[in-house]
Specification:
alpha/beta, six-stranded mixed β-sheet, 29% strand, 4 helices, nucleotide binding, Rossmann fold, nucleotide-binding, 9 strands, 180 residues, three-stranded antiparallel β-sheet, 23% helix
């Protein structure tokens, strides 16, 4: 039923799993002996984070933040609302934000600046998708699985109006669905 709203599949489930496996191996090397805190940005990061952590073979901790900047539309409003902050002190800890997509970059830039004021050992970003054409501020991920064109994508955690997160792939949403 949901597939009728998809213009094309951009990244298959198998491609996502392979990229998460490769990134997990890299994170295992980079964070060996450091016990980083992986901070999932809710809600979109959940499927990617769940896949990614299966492939990290070193001690990690998990935490989550709920941050909103879309408010039901198809583009970021630029207003960042932290609805749920982390549950633990990060002073002296290595932090890795896990994100579904970096589009405008405003959310992650704001979060990175906020966290740097909390005196962590390091703050890095891992993202499933990077959409550099959408960038409005200067920020780059430290780890990127896929760079995508400037199209409205859903699936594997990404949504339009809270729908389509459960698709097992990344697809381009038909324009008529979100231009109603």
């Amino acid at each position: 039923m949901l597939e009728q709203d998809i213009k094309k599949i951009l990244i298959s489930h198998d491609e996502i799993v392979a990229a998460a496996r490769e990134l997990g191996q890299k994170l295992t090397e980079d964070y060996q002996g450091k016990n980083p805190i992986l901070v999932g940005i809710l809600k979109g990061s959940v499927p990617f984070m769940a896949e990614l952590i299966k492939h990290i073979d070193t001690h990690i901790e998990l935490d989550f933040m709920l941050v909103s900047s879309y408010h039901g539309g198809t583009s970021s409003s630029g207003v960042i609302n932290i609805i749920k902050d982390m549950d633990q002190d990060i002073k002296g800890r290595d932090i890795l934000f896990v994100e579904d997509i970096i589009d405008t970059g405003k959310t992650l830039k704001s979060l990175k600046e906020l966290f740097e004021g909390r005196q962590p050992a390091s703050v890095k970003i891992a993202t499933l998708l990077d959409k550099p054409e959408g960038r409005l501020v200067e920020i780059e991920a430290d780890y990127t699985c896929f760079t995508i064109p400037n199209e409205f994508v859903v699936g594997y955690g990404l949504d339009y109006d809270e729908n389509y997160r459960n698709l097992p792939y990344i697809g381009v949403l038909k324009e008529e669905v979100y231009s109603k």
